[in-house]
């Protein structure tokens, strides 16, 4: 990897804690979470679970984008388009095709929010048919590309809850190989009955606020979000005389090869992903000032990740926190919003608190950062893991 | 200095049966609206108890992956990269039906667990205990080409030496019916082939095709994978420029391309691009493959297998000929072109080795 890494020149985000970078930062700084009851759709579980829901209806989101009826944008596409547009505006890009530019997006639910609404009704109601073709994961990426007017490569990654980290990695690879000058990378996922019920059957949804790394943690809060970064080549940066927000210094991906949904006891996949990221970044673990952990607050993840952190950092685990108590676990978008949070942390010199933590895990000597901490940061590591043993690590460095 | 990249092993489960030397000689043209892949016996690979819980997509993927690795004599690859348009459609549908039919009650997790798009790549990794890089691309007709591009870049740049790459999609009942409603798939009572197609939509299919790619040429090598280019939007009028830039990047002239492998699928919204593309290569032989595989998002993986086989055999089976022309010189260079309804254009260049 070319050091100091690949420049990040723009970012855009929408989650339960805000629809701009600034709103997100203020919420994180002030410990103000966005967890609430489901309001936007009907589910039997609405009084039993807490979620990180964005309180805009689809109609409001469409209005924010200036999309008029009739259209066939799913919620996943609407959220993605808003965040991607914000990212290119933040990067000061007016003509998206002026240089070789691509979009590498990611999603896990894709258009499932509409499929689950009209699955049977499609058979009898032709007026709903425009939504049939929005089911697949690629649809949201195509819609985002349409909103941006993008002509270059568009593709999508779906590796469950690590998806956006992998989209960021592939984008970096395309810049590094000289195939693209700029690339918009990230992910988008809307809340759906499908995922709520899926996680429910796995018995990893809590009816309370999630408590990552707490000994009495009892599951996750689901959330919805979208976030995108703009990555640019050194040449492109020079051409436009831009100053980067941060650098993507290294990345690593590995497979736990242990179980379709559970993480291995010793966090092998997570350990390997972090190890590869250090190699790619040409950094020692000691150079990391803050770890934005995956920290979903399921008993299995936090123990496995905790073990992996202990294995890679030894007795010197850096300050770490999970920001999932703020936003909920936003699945494919998680690594993208947490990339934005990691960059905000670097820019502002702030470690965000791990909310709701009370008791240290019995198995490990690990205590997350529970209060907002002001401290200059040079390198931040962000972890994201998913079903299928997918483990991804990104390292961001101060510009 | 970039490494060269070779296709050293192929495996597939298709509507024409599993991957074998005689596949294209024995193949028959599909004329049904929906075409299931002929399923092999999975007994050798998957324990019966597991097999019962697995969807066809997972099983086809595992089978094709193993076939490709065996042929290339690779035990555990350094990375696994797959492409799928609709992912594990059967399990997604099953879990969704259970949610809707039982009002969100009495659900079991198995179909949810297996519904994520990366299940096939994950199950292959689990089976091989492959802890390397593991990605799944899900972008309609270029899901497979995206995976192939990722693999090519990593091999060229020397990050890995052996990568397993594949494309897989399965037919699931309800999804298929919905695609018929919007005329993306032909009506069930039609009996048209890609060539005789007059009604809208395509003959739909499913399958898995995997490749073992490596940086060393071996005795099992089919061809060299030279370059891939993907672009979301190309207007028909821009097609000559799009192609010219790609050829120039690879220091080729149009006359250097001996054969084209085109994605003709019987739907005029897609096929008009192939007609325009063919016109740019008056001397090249024109081949097609979707009449043998059916149209599905990851079917371009089957196309690459067909093209690689043509280069290995140095012979074009008559079943693959779109036009009855033959390449003038020896078969050395094949250019694959795939897009769907004018979106997601992919050029893949392979060369005899």
From TrEMBL, chain A:
Q: Does the keyword Repeat apply?
A: no
Gene3D superfamilies reported in the protein's UniProt record = 3.40.47.10
Keyword Transferase carried by entry: yes
Alphabetically sorted, this entry's keywords are: Transferase
- Xref: SMART domains: PKS_KS
Question: Which PROSITE patterns does the record cross-reference, listed alphabetically?
Answer: KS3_1, KS3_2
A Pfam family found in this protein is: Ketoacyl-synt_C
Q: Where is the Ketosynthase family 3 (KS3) domain?
A: 3-398
Under the heading InterPro entries, the entry gives: Beta-ketoacyl_synthase (IPR000794), Ketoacyl_synth_AS (IPR018201), Ketoacyl_synth_C (IPR014031), Ketoacyl_synth_N (IPR014030), PKS_Beta-ketoAc_synthase_dom (IPR020841), Thiolase-like (IPR016039)
Homology family: Belongs to the thiolase-like superfamily. Beta-ketoacyl-ACP synthases family.
Q: What is this protein called?
A: Beta-ACP synthase
From TrEMBL, chain B:
In terms of superkingdom, the source organism counts as Bacteria
Q: Which segments constitute the Beta-ketoacyl synthase-like N-terminal domain? A: 34-177
Q: Which UniProt keywords apply?
A: Transferase
Name of the molecule in the record: 3-oxoacyl-ACP synthase
**What species is this protein from?**
Sphingobacterium griseoflavum
């Amino acid at each position: 990897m070319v050091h100091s890494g690949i420049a990040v020149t723009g970012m855009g985000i929408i989650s339960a804690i805000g629809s701009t970078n600034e709103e997100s930062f203020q919420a994180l700084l002030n410990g103000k979470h966005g967890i609430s009851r489901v309001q936007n759709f009907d589910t039997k579980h609405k009084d039993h679970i807490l979620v990180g829901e964005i309180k805009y209806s689809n109609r409001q989101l469409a209005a924010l984008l200036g999309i008029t009826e009739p259209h066939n944008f799913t919620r996943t596409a609407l959220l993605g388009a808003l965040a991607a547009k914000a990212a290119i505006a933040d990067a000061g890009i007016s003509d998206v095709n002026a240089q070789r530019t691509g979009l590498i997006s990611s999603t896990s639910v894709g258009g499932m929010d509409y499929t689950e609404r009209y699955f049977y009704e499609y058979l009898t109601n032709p007026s709903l048919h425009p939504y049939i073709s929005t089911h697949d994961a690629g649809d949201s990426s195509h819609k985002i590309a349409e909103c941006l007017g993008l002509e270059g490569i568009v593709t999508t990654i779906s590796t469950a809850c690590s998806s956006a980290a992998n989209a960021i990695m592939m984008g970096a690879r395309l810049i590094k190989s000289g195939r693209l000058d700029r690339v918009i990378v990230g992910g988008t996922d809307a809340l759906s009955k499908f995922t709520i019920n899926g996680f429910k059957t796995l018995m990893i949804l809590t009816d309370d606020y999630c408590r990552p790394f707490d000994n009495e943690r009892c599951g996750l809060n689901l959330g919805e979000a979208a976030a995108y970064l703009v990555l640019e080549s050194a040449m492109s940066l020079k051409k436009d005389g831009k100053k980067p927000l941060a650098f993507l210094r290294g990345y690593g991906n590995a497979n736990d090869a242990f179980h379709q949904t559970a993480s291995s006891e010793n966090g092998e996949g997570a350990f390997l992903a972090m190890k590869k990221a250090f190699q790619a970044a040409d950094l020692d673990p000691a150079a990391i000032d803050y770890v934005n952990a995956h920290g979903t607050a399921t008993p299995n993840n936090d123990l496995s990740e905790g073990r992996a952190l202990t294995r890679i950092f030894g007795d010197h685990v850096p300050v770490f926190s999970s920001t999932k108590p703020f936003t909920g676990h936003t699945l494919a978008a998680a690594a993208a919003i947490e990339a934005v949070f990691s960059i905000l942390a670097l820019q502002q010199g702030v470690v965000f608190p791990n909310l709701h933590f009370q008791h240290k895990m019995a198995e490990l000597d690990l205590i997350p950062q529970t209060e907002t901490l002001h401290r200059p940061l040079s390198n931040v590591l962000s972890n994201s893991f998913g079903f299928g043993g997918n483990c991804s690590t990104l390292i961001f460095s101060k510009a | 200095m970039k490494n060269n990249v070779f296709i050293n092993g192929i495996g597939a489960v298709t509507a024409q049966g599993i991957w074998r030397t005689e596949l294209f000689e024995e193949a028959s043209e599909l004329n049904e609206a929906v075409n299931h892949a002929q399923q092999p016996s999975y007994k050798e690979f998957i324990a019966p108890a597991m097999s019962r819980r697995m969807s066809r997509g997972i099983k086809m993927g595992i089978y094709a992956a193993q076939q490709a690795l065996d042929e290339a004599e690779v035990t555990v690859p350094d990375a696994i990269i797959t492409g799928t348009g609709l992912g594990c459609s059967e399990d997604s549908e099953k879990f969704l039906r259970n949610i809707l039919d039982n009002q969100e009650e009495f659900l079991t997790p198995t179909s949810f667990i297996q519904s994520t798009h990366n299940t096939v790549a994950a199950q292959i990794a689990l089976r091989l205990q492959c802890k390397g890089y593991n990605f799944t691309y899900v972008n309609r007709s270029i899901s497979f080409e995206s995976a192939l591009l990722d693999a090519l870049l990593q091999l060229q740049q020397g990050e890995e030496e052996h990568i397993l790459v594949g494309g897989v999609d399965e037919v699931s009942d309800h999804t298929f019916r919905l695609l018929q409603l919007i005329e993306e798939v032909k009506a069930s009572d039609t009996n048209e082939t890609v060539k005789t197609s007059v009604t809208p939509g395509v003959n739909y299919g499913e399958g898995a095709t995997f490749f073992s790619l490596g940086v060393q040429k071996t005795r099992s090598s089919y061809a060299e994978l030279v370059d891939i280019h993907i672009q979301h939007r190309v207007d028909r009028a821009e097609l000559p420029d799009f192609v010219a830039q790609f050829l120039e990047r690879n220091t080729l002239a149009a006359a250097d391309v001996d054969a084209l492998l085109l994605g003709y699928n019987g739907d005029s919204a897609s096929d008009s691009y192939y007609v325009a593309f063919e016109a740019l290569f008056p001397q090249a032989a024109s081949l097609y493959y979707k009449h043998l595989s059916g149209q599905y998002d990851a079917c371009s993986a089957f196309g690459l297998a067909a093209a690689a086989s043509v280069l290995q055999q140095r012979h074009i089976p008559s079943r693959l000929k779109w036009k009855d022309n033959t390449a003038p010189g020896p078969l050395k260079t094949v250019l694959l072109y795939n897009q769907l309804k004018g979106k997601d254009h992919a050029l893949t260049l392979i060369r005899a080795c």
